[in-house]
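Protocol step 4 of 6: structure prediction from sequence.
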Amino acid sequence: MSLSHHGGWSWGTTFLLLLSFLVLVSLSEEAAFPGDPCSGLVKNGCFDKGFNGWEGGGNLPVSIVELTSPCDASPVVRLGVSVPQVPRVKSSAWISQTITIPLQVQHPLLTFCYDIFTNTVIDWSAFHVQIQEESGEITEILRDGYEGEYEPDPGTELGWRHFAYDLTPYRGRTITLRFGSTDEWEGAYGIWTLVDGIKIFEGYPVHLPVALRNAKPPTPTTGPKPFPTETPTPTPGPSELERRLMELINQERASQGPWALAVEGRLMQAARRHSQDMATNDFVRHTGSDGSSPLDRMWAAGYPVGRGNELLAADSEDPSSVLAQWMQSTFHHDILMDPEFVHIGVGYAFNSDATYDHYWTVNVAHPPADMPTGALAPAGMSTPSDLEHQLVDLINQERVSRGLSPLTMDGRLMQAARRHSEDMATSDFFGHTGSDGSNPIYRMRKAGYPLGGDELLAAGTEDPADVLATWMASPAQSDTLMDPDFVHIGVSHVHNGAATHGHYWTVKVAHPPVAISTSAGPASEH
């Protein structure tokens, strides 16, 4: 029997999600933003003038590369060099810039794009972004790299990612931003990173009232809110206010050329969840009280995001006023008029005890480009076969015998597991990478399950007891199945007599994201 284990998948996605934010208050205070027209407070953050404004160093080269990133037109900066030129020594390549953030910038937001090419795991080589204050204190705001347990093939590209970080705590202060690729083990082949579009602009297009400027994100007291169960709950139809805002948005799109957006129940669910969260917990921001991001909420509702975006508004009940303010902002206008988006969800919530009374969330998105027509139809949990039930029962018996809680079957994990078992049986292969190039995390998120899980594979036997016995004989796979943090499971068995191994098994074990602590300083939105 063949078996395989995929360890260490903890986070990561190549989906690009740009965040936007709006509170409906007076525009009379808004003024022209200071600094570079391309990158705001960052000098030459688009690298159109080479390295003008930047310092650099390290024992690996820093260079300008002519290509187009999702953030900006060419060029981009490359930190490090690729195999086979990279030496197998401890090494680094970095750039930095010292920036003063004026007090009049109420919500400075740092954004940039990056693409990592790596040859080893994050513990040995990583891309870092740090903020150093005048006191010398250093805060690392991003550390990224390959999260797998085993080394990837040389030159593995992780894909372009967008990062945003709230610099509001640094208003009126001078800081140094440092971006670097580091090889922390002399035996590693190393890492190199493309970076582009390093910008600091006003994160919100209008000023917030004083009451909210110094507001701290609420600290969760009960942990994250539960994610949807395996049986999808029908989404109620839009309220009159929600329906009116969608009508106005589509009227505006029709007048400017793009197709009308279709109402999508899962995006409605995600939008309503966040509006209710803001109204209940009295805040206005993209990060939920449970630490969820917009992308988390869309996936948790079951929508497979190819690309998506979220807009927020507060302090007005009138849909026409909400839209008018968004349309006055180039940033928000471009999101709503984006011709690639096909679906919309709107959520409105009211709470007279909250600061702004009225809270709006709009989600616009499209599914992955390779998703077949009709595949987006809501899918519940397929009925597990007897063999699949037996394997789940055996796994849970083993967990209970060790004092652990049994795992609950989750429809999204069942869907992800079934997809991969069918793929292996049909395409006659055995491994974690799908025939379409998908990885375990992608399949989980495409099925609608928020991040935080692992995958085990087996082939060559029909007997669930044999499958479990082989896994339990492997310390790595035993540790995965007996992990006390996991709460959900999905299992799939597929048979194809014409394939090499005949029987193909996939098991997904996972837990939803845990709450993110708000006590450790500024938190990123991604």
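Step 5 (inspection) to follow. The first strand starts at residue 2 and ends at 6.
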